[in-house]
TrEMBL record:
It comes from Cryomyces antarcticus. SUPFAM superfamilies: P-loop containing nucleoside triphosphate hydrolases. Its main location: cytoplasm. Keywords: 4Fe-4S, ATP-binding, Cytoplasm, Iron, Iron-sulfur, Metal-binding, Nucleotide-binding. Gene3D superfamilies: P-loop containing nucleotide triphosphate hydrolases. It comes from the Eukaryota. Residues 75-94, 263-284 are annotated as: Disordered. ATP binds at G15, K16, G17, G18, V19, G20, K21, S22. InterPro entries: Mrp-like_CS, Mrp/NBP35_ATP-bd, NUBP2/Cfd1_eukaryotes, P-loop_NTPase, YlxH/NBP35. It is found in: Cytoplasm. This is Cytosolic Fe-S cluster assembly factor cfd1.
Length: 317
């Protein structure tokens, strides 16, 4: 069975579209890998599969093996190396964990192809992803889901409960934004988790601020704190607030290592304290290195490092 050697399965859910769920999934995966965990990412957002683009592997093709599909590798595991001043090497003593992905995007003829499927075909595809992808041994499998509570979600939870051992499905990370309409929709998602028996591992409030690429300020464009209030109301953990960072977008779209003005502070912490702010001396090597190595220079990495440490502490003890 393709899921039997996976230690922890985590769903990433959102009540509505456009809240940055795939961005959160990507950064959770990168942060886990940087902490030495082997990670798989399964994209079951069938009508909008964006995970291949986030990891810069859109041109990759899935290979067939006797037991099913072989997921696409983002990077292999690497041993621990000493910390370097330019942030290119993993700082963790546990080294770098492997990272692999599976998405319908790898199976489409081209990126612009529309997926026009009725519910039963979507359900069959979700079940096939859960049964036919040969992940091998993984510490974590993150499942990026469509927004809302649709056929895919019901099929996903039902199939997981049938194919996994007790406790293997660790729970769900729920993504919201500070706006009231997003929070209202996420409340429905929390109720869905309650009805289906899925543990809510925590709430992440995305887009809670804007990291200016020019003036070193982080401004709360869409307000902040609504996600934490909602988490308190539902008695679920609040994992953290994540601002919009244009440099992360540039990293994903152009593969450029983030560079910030001196004095940039995010969530009250100076970026320089994490070794990610520069005076421009890194411009010459912005395109070098793996995605995960360049992500270490992003202002969002310390935030997700903290979020992941909370999850790991809860799930691994």
């Amino acid at each position: 069975m393709s899921l039997e050697n996976i230690q922890h399965i985590v769903l990433v859910l959102s009540g509505k579209g456009g809240v940055g769920k795939s961005s959160i999934t990507t950064q959770l995966a990168l942060a886990l890998s940087l902490q030495g965990r082997s990670v798989g990412v399964l994209d079951i957002d069938l009508t909008g599969p964006s995970i291949p683009r986030f990891f810069g592997i859109e041109g990759a093709k899935v290979k067939q093996a006797p037991g099913g599909w072989v997921p696409v590798s983002v990077h292999d595991a690497q041993p621990a190396v000493p910390s370097s001043e330019n942030g290119q090497a993993p700082r963790s003593g546990s080294g770098l964990g492997s990272l692999r992905c599976m998405s319908l995007g790898f199976l489409l003829g081209n990126r612009g192809d529309a997926v026009v499927w009725r519910g039963p075909k979507k359900t069959a595809m979700v079940r096939q992803f859960l049964s036919d992808v040969q992940w091998g041994a993984l510490d974590y499998l993150l499942i990026d889901t469509p927004p809302g509570t649709s056929d895919e979600h019901i099929s996903l939870v039902e199939t997981l409960l049938k194919q996994t051992s007790p406790g293997q499905v660790a729970g769900a990370v729920v993504v919201t934004t500070p706006q009231a309409i997003s929070i209202a929709d996420v409340k429905k998602e929390l109720n869905f988790c309650k009805k289906t028996g899925v543990t809510v591992l925590g709430v992440v409030e995305n887009m809670a601020g804007f990291v200016c690429p020019s003036c070193a300020e982080c401004t709360n464009v869409f307000s902040k704190g609504g996600g934490e209030v909602m988490a308190t109301e539902f008695s679920v953990p609040f994992l953290g607030s994540v601002p919009i960072d244009p440099m992360f977008v540039m990293l994903i779209e152009e593969g450029k290592r983030p560079v910030y003005p001196k004095g940039t502070a995010v969530n009250g912490k100076n970026v320089e304290e994490n070794g990610t702010a520069t005076d421009g001396n890194q411009e010459h090597n912005r395109d070098e290195g793996l995605l995960v190595e360049k992500y270490m220079s992003c202002s969002l990495h310390p935030i997700f490092d903290g979020i992941v440490r909370q999850l790991v502490t809860r799930l691994e003890g």
